[in-house]
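Researcher: Sit down with what I've pasted below and flag anything odd:
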Amino acid sequence: MTPDDRALVDRFLDMMAAEAGASRHTLAAYRNDLDRAAEVVRPLGTASAEDMSKLGSEWAELSAATVARRAAALRRFFGFLVDEGLRADDPSAGLPRPRLERPLPRILDEAEIARMFEAAEDRATSGEGAAVRNLALLELLYGSGLRATELVSLPRGAVREGQPFLMVRGKGSKERLVPISSRAQTAVKAWLELASDGPWLFPSGKKHLSRVRLFQIVRQMAADAGIAPDRVSPHVLRHAFATHLLSGGADLRVLQSLLGHADIATTQIYTHVDSARLVELVNARHPLADRSR
């Protein structure tokens, strides 16, 4: 990357951090994608639409998802340059547009979730610290639909007795309220009686529990319940939370708020899971449902 391009990318990332609230990981991903583009197109900041069209063949061996992500980073970068008056035109029209088929989320059915809770509750009755902690983790993952990072980074005082909601700081440092069940409150209270002092609800050494360790814990809980560990992860439990709420009649907009999705299109992926129930709902609730032909 040329020095001029490096300076433009730095300005762009400064904007993303200050105005969009992008996390350190997001900024690193943007920088990497722009670096990869600059390996093919030099200089990047003054590239034309024709230059952008070359990326399609250069990235032919990459997955459609990777190409789409890199193209999105470039569109945002060039949009920034135009907005700032650093160039007059936007060459993004020349970028490749791979067609993406959004994968359906892996989920567990309600019976499998029940088995995980039964196994976790049986182990927690021993009073052993890790087992009590794991039950609290499971209650919050499935009961509140938290992301892994949101869960492990909860402060010690996040769950308050008698308070039915939890304030969570999600992607882009955006805060949202999520429900917390009386079951989860009870499980967290039992865990706090055993947990070491510190700023985190789920401490580990001098920091909080890591996402990798949470992943391992969840897979072990699945194995304890007789469920193939490779089918289960913290994100799968989040999917189960969303799917089962929708199946129970939750409104899609409410679900969007609970999950912290910026775009309703992200939430709409869950509508695949219970199409039969949705058809039944239309037939039963639509104003014309009771009218004879």
